[in-house]
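Can't paste images in this forum, so I'm doing it all in text. The chain is below; anyone willing to post the predicted structure tokens underneath?
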Amino acid sequence: MPDFDIIVIGAGPAGSAAATWAAKHGAKVALVDKAMFPRNKLCGGLFTERSRSYYCEIFGRDFDLSRAVTRHDISFWHDGAELATLTDIPPLHLTMRLDLDNTLFEHALTAGASDFSGRHIAQISENEILFKDGTALHAPILIGADGVNSIVAKHLFGASFNTETIGFGLEIEVPESTQNPVEKPLRIDFGAATWGYGWSFPKQNSTTVGVGGLRAPNPDMKAHMRHYLKTLGLDPEAVKFKGHHLPFGDFRPTPGRDNILLAGDAAGLVDPITGEGIAFAMKSGQIAAQSALDALGAGSPKTALRRYQRTLRDMQRNLRIARTLRRIIFAPRWQGAFTRTFRRSGTVRVMYMRLLAGELEYPQLARSVVARLPRYLLNALRR
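Text version of the structure:
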């Protein structure tokens, strides 16, 4: 007899969402993570209205905004020049991942998942995980939600990610002064890294500052980070950078194998334009859990992947379109044309924010971009 119906590996947004959804629907769930909670994680911590909507659906309650900074404005910059400041936009909630992830983890335990945090996995097989202390757990279905450096993905495919297409980011947390976080600029800087951008996100007690982009064309991301910090008036020699890989739209077309599923960053489900990952992590975790429940209900655990792929298709389609549009927005040869268009076109700016808020999907944006392509190409010729 298996110990559990489902083992979820990784207790971040994807894993906690999967564990919560499965446990709420009657499954016996083990939630495994190498860290003890609360634990910190490098992340801009942007929690959009899309994220909030998924949170309400999955966890059955509204998101507690008391420890977040909510903004209705954002500034966009390029090469030290301000492109636009948008006001009265859909709310953007800025969170600390230490708080957010711990909240989600506690929701999963409250729903009935069994806590296996602080446990290190030595080996994974089809229906079993073996811990380094020699103990093991068994289940007919495994869900790998263990981030971009996923050991589950490595078990399935030999590597956690494709080194040629993966992104990379550097971040720091700047301790806060007495300035009200609502008064500090929330900004995104296009081109702060090649095929990427920089960000400055004010929180309650600190500001998260970082740069990120595709790793291959950025062999010296630290140089980009130092330049960006100087742009913001910060001393790069006074801080220590922390780095992490970013699945910048490098999603896996086949997110698993038979009864083993991948969700969130482990499946590469991150928006390659906005960088949003929390919303896609929670939603893919929910979809993975429901696919597992359906496969178990049918008495056929190995059909879990087929069910998961069928439901995940729309999300992957959106990210595939986003990956195509990224070539227009971030490619160095088009950067000037894009920034000129962004500065001049209120419609483009509004669409970008509606996209971030979850009010607009990429197929709609793509149609609008195609309609504006002749003007965009003309702008490119005026470089």
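The first helix runs from residue 13 to 24. The chain has three domains: 6-67+96-161+249-320, 167-246, 332-381.
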